[in-house]
Structures are given as structure tokens and as C-alpha cells.
């Protein structure tokens, strides 16, 4: 399986200038190729092949208008053309129903705050004995290694994010780390009050990183709004806002990584509900939904299940997990969100809404989770008339209810 490892880069002044030049050349090649294809489509001509675009790029380097494209590695420019091919391929596959629909490729702007270039093995980049990343026509860039790579990487992507930070992203082929088998199997109910509730009754609180940082983000955004457009002070203020948001995103990602790794290591199988995140993001709960980051968390569960040899099962979003009693299986109908505990009218058991949903998620997925682990509390069931009361002189009576 292929995994991606990211590490922080610390380029010096000349290296930052060289990277900015590479970002700009890659963007120009992408836009030129996209313009060529769009012009051909508008004129009713056949789709321009990648080989023709590559020849046009080689010719452009010999012209005075595009001679500066030769100042960067040719591999970076060729990868930009491949990125355009991938964008078109995804667009056409969406039209054919092979993947979710997405829009056609769009032109890149020099004002985009995120820039990226990719080097393959043909570029002859390498990791020096001193631990630096040697990139062609850029130099040896200092890397902050937080861990060692499991194998030799095939490609490296250099990314500059909105906060002005640089990262090196390596694609590595690695064998799955199959863990020994274990007994626990759980259902997972994701929510907003608690980030996750497990079928064994464990409740994991939601960190709410965005909510906790709202005051700081508000002050930074207000300072940005006061700066004059186009000024250097506005650029500095924008970077401060981006750094504040990046700090929130990093904390959320770290929380997701730690929790997903723990769940996959401790359980043989995990069942989770396929939530309609896009629909929930259009409601009044949008900020809380984005703050939770359910999609990112489930994606981590997916690849870590493959990595550790575990099982992840997704169930449909329309399963009535909050309406069915996990003790007897009777459907009791929908309930408002403020109802957190309820009593089953069939068996009289008191159920916690979230834990009951987690147990039902596991049952729908086909996992053998018992309802007794869901903290079901038996309730009082009205006794039948003939079973209640005392017996006097051989005649059954009911306490408090006169005989007819």
C-alpha cells in the first residue's frame, strides 16, 4: 500500500525565491495547456493530446516570451501537464458515473495562497547524508524529520500553505503492519455533543478546537479588515489569520490521528455510519459540523484499517439507529434531538440515545455486539391484573383497584 508522509521544510532566502519561481512556472504551464484545450473545444477541434502539449512546452522554452521556463526543473513542468490530465480524467469519470461529479479544470491564480510542485525520480532529487532534501535548481533544503521513512520514497511534493509554511510530502510504498487479532468489536456513533460514542458505553468528548479559538480568530480577522487592500500590512495580517486557522487544523488533525490509531489497534472491527456531511454543513449546525471533521476522521479509519489488518464497515445513513431499541429490536419512531434518554414501550428498558445508536450501528453492520454492553437499564413494566395484589381466602384481589 502507498502512504504519504509529510515533514516541515525550512528553506533559506534564495531557496524561497527559487521555490516561488518554480511555483510560478508550474502555474503558467498548467494555464497555457488548459487554454490550449479550451480554445480547441470552443473551435470545435479534437481534444488536444498530452504529447502535443509537451511539444508546445518544449517550443515555448525557446521563445523570448517563455524563455524563463528553463530556469526551473523540466520535471516540475511535465508534472504540471500530468496534473491537468488527471483533472480532466476525474471530470470525465464524474460525467460517466465512475466517481462523484466534479467540475472541469479551472485556471490557477498567482494569488492562490497554496502552491505545490512535484518531483519524480527522473528529477534526481535525493536526501543527503546530512538529512537535507536536495532539489534540482533549488538546493539542499533543511528538513525537520519527525520520524524515519519506512522505505525509499518514489515522489516528493513541495507544498507552501496559506500560512507561508513549507512541507515536503513523500509517497512511500510500504507493507501493511498486520497486528495480532483481538476480540473487541465496536460500533461508533459520531456526534456534536460528544465527538464519538462507542457501543461499549465509552463517550469521547468533542475538543471543539474552532470554538475554543474563536476569540483569537475574531481579533485577527478584525485586524485584517482594517488594513488597506494591496498594502504590505494587509499581507502580514492575512498571514496571521492563516496561521491561527492552521493551528486549529493541526490540533484537530492530531486528535483524529491519535483517536483513529487507538480505535484500530484496540478493536478487531469498527462499524461507523455514513453521515451526510455536505447536507449538515448547509444547516445552522454548519460551524460545529466543520469543527468536528467527521470526513477526515473516517478517512483515517479507512486507511488505518488496511494498514493494521482490521475491518471497517460503513452502514447506510438512512438506517433508523436512533429509533430502534437495541435490547428488543422494536422500532419506537423518531425522537427530537433534545431527547437523550428514552424508555422502550415494548420491553421497558431505559436507553441512552447515543449508546443505543452505537450498538445498532454495530448490529446493522453484522457485528456481534450485545445490548448488555450498552448500559441498558431495565424499567418498570406494569403488572397484569391477575398477577398483582395478594390472595385472601383463595380469591385474587388487586391492591388499590376494587373488584368489579
Topology:
Blueprint: E1 2-10, H1 13-42, H2 50-61, H3 74-96, E2 115-119, E3 126-127, E4 133-135, E5 139-144, E6 155-160, E7 166-173, E8 185-190, E9 194-198, E10 203-205, H4 209-212, H5 214-225, H6 232-266, E11 269-273, H7 277-280, H8 286-292, H9 294-308, E12 311-315, E13 341-343, E14 349-352, H10 353-364, E15 377-378, E16 391-392, E17 395-396
Parallel strand pairs: 8-11, 11-12
Antiparallel strand pairs: 1-5, 1-7, 2-6, 3-4, 4-5, 6-7, 8-9, 9-10, 13-14, 14-15, 16-17
- What share of the residues does DSSP label as strand, in percent? 15-25%
N-to-C SSE string, H for helix and E for strand:
EHHHEEEEEEEEEHHHEHHHEEEHEEE
What is the number of strand segments?
17
Count of helices?
Answer: 10
Instruction: Indicate the radius of gyration in whole angstroms.
Output: 29 Å
Structural class: alpha+beta
End-to-end gap: 77 Å
| Overall average residue pLDDT | 86
Spatially, the strands of the biggest sheet line up as 2-6-7-1-5-4-3
Helix content: 25-40%
Residue stretches low in confidence (pLDDT < 50, at least 5 long) are 370-404
Largest sheet: 7 strands, antiparallel
The shape, in one word, is elongated
Q: What does this protein structure show overall?
A:
- The chain is α+β, with helices and mostly antiparallel strands and 404 residues long.
- Helix content is 38%, strand content 19%.
- It has helices at 13-42, 50-61, 74-96, 209-212, 214-225, 232-266, 277-280, 286-292, 294-308, 353-364; strands at residues 2-10, 115-119, 126-127, 133-135, 139-144, 155-160, 166-173, 185-190, 194-198, 203-205, 269-273, 311-315, 341-343, 349-352, 377-378, 391-392, 395-396.
- Strands 2-6-7-1-5-4-3 form a 7-stranded antiparallel β-sheet. It has a 5-stranded mixed β-sheet with strand order 10-9-8-11-12, with helices on both faces.
- A hairpin with a 3-residue loop joins strand 8 and strand 9.
- It is elongated and about 85 Å long.
- It starts with a strand and ends in an 8-residue tail after the last strand.
Amino acid at each position: 500500500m502507498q502512504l504519504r508522509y509529510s515533514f516541515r521544510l525550512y528553506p533559506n532566502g534564495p531557496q524561497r525565491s527559487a521555490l516561488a519561481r518554480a511555483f510560478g512556472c508550474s502555474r503558467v504551464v498548467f494555464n497555457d495547456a488548459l487554454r490550449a484545450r479550451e480554445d480547441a473545444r470552443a473551435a470545435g477541434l479534437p481534444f488536444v493530446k498530452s504529447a502535443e502539449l509537451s511539444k508546445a512546452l518544449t517550443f515555448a522554452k525557446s521563445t523570448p516570451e517563455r524563455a524563463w521556463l528553463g530556469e526551473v526543473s523540466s520535471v516540475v513542468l511535465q508534472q504540471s501537464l500530468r496534473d491537468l490530465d488527471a483533472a480532466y480524467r476525474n471530470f470525465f469519470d464524474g460525467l460517466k458515473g465512475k466517481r462523484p461529479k466534479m467540475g472541469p479544470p479551472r485556471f490557477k491564480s498567482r494569488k492562490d495562497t497554496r502552491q505545490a510542485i512535484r518531483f519524480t525520480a527522473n528529477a534526481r532529487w535525493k536526501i543527503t547524508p546530512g538529512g537535507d532534501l536536495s532539489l534540482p535548481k533549488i538546493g539542499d533544503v533543511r528538513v525537520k524529520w519527525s520520524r524515519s521513512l519506512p522505505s525509499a520514497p518514489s515522489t516528493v511534493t513541495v507544498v507552501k500553505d496559506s500560512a507561508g509554511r513549507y512541507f515536503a510530502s513523500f509517497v512511500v510504498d510500504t507493507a501493511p503492519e498486520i497486528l495480532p487479532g483481538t476480540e473487541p468489536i465496536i460500533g461508533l456513533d459520531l456526534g456534536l455533543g460528544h465527538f464519538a460514542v462507542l457501543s461499549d458505553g465509552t463517550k469521547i468528548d468533542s475538543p471543539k478546537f474552532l470554538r475554543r479559538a474563536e476569540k483569537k480568530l475574531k481579533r485577527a480577522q478584525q485586524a485584517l479588515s482594517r488594513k488597506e487592500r494591496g498594502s504590505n500590512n494587509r499581507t502580514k495580517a492575512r498571514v496571521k489569520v492563516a496561521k491561527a486557522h492552521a493551528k486549529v487544523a493541526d490540533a484537530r488533525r492530531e486528535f483524529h490521528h491519535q483517536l483513529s490509531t487507538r480505535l484500530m489497534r484496540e478493536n478487531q472491527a469498527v462499524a461507523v455510519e455514513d453521515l451526510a456531511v455536505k447536507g449538515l454543513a448547509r444547516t445552522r449546525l454548519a460551524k460545529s459540523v466543520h469543527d468536528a471533521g467527521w470526513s477526515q476522521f473516517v478517512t483515517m479509519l479507512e486507511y488505518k484499517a488496511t494498514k493494521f489488518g482490521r475491518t471497517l464497515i460503513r452502514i447506510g445513513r438512512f438506517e433508523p439507529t436512533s429509533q430502534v431499541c437495541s435490547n428488543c429490536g422494536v422500532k419506537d419512531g423518531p425522537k427530537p434531538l433534545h431527547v437523550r434518554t428514552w424508555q422502550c414501550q415494548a420491553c421497558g428498558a431505559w436507553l441512552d440515545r447515543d449508546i443505543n445508536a452505537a450498538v445498532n450501528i454495530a448490529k446493522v453492520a453484522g457485528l456481534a455486539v450485545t445490548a448488555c454492553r450498552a448500559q441498558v437499564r431495565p424499567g418498570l413494566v406494569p403488572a397484569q391484573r391477575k398477577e398483582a395484589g395478594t390472595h385472601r381466602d383463595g380469591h385474587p384481589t388487586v391492591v388499590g383497584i376494587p373488584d368489579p
